[in-house]
Amino acid sequence: MTEVRTPAAPTAIVTGAARGIGAATAIKLAADGMAVAVLDLDADNCASTVDTIEAAGGRAAAFDADVTDAEQVDKVVQRVADELGAPTVLVNNAGVTRDNLLFKMTDDDWDTVVNVHLRGAFLMSRAVQSHITTVGWGRIVNLSSTSALGNRGQANYAAAKAGLQGFTKTLAIELGRFGATVNAVAPGFTVTDMTAAAAARAGVDFDELKSTMASQIAVRRVGKPEDIANVIAFLASEDAAFVSGQVLYVSGGPAA
User: Which of 45, 66, 203, 251 has the highest CB neighbour count under 10 A?
Assistant: First the structure.
């Protein structure tokens, strides 16, 4: 049996990395020695993440692409390979919400959420897998959510996040023979710009929401982006070489 070894300095792509969980993940992976492509719709929004990485002695660069656009995805992955090295670690974190009850949910609400989460993960994974199979080592981590178990007003988001779990398990089967592992992380309530914006749209005071959510979580606090980033970093490491096709709920307690 051939032992699969991690490349000396892997290159990682983190999508949706301008802020929140994506930014925390990019910073953590860079601290672990990876060159990191910080990817978002607008590269200018990634400057803070890149600056933080570089100030700590890491290597990173900002890239922009719409993860739902196949041509843009293929081009940006090639740019990453040219500028930072062949990407063999991919964190599919890019996401949006368009919450509404089913009878109010529009076609665009549905399509936007499903396309960003599911189509985006598919296109990015397809583009990166050629580098993984060439190198013979890789890590893909998909961001699911506890909402995959069902959440009122999030039929689109729940469906997309549940779909990512099936996608994860299938890629684990297909890519395992090439030295790759594929896993999903499903965060519970985590303090990010996205959750703050969702609260604002619902007319809910965010501090009150955090307090309410914390009271319902076993560890009696809400999640931080770094909590999720630490788990992603473990799954992207050699320490997790025998973990694949799994969905890890990071929610401060039992997920259901």
Answer: 251
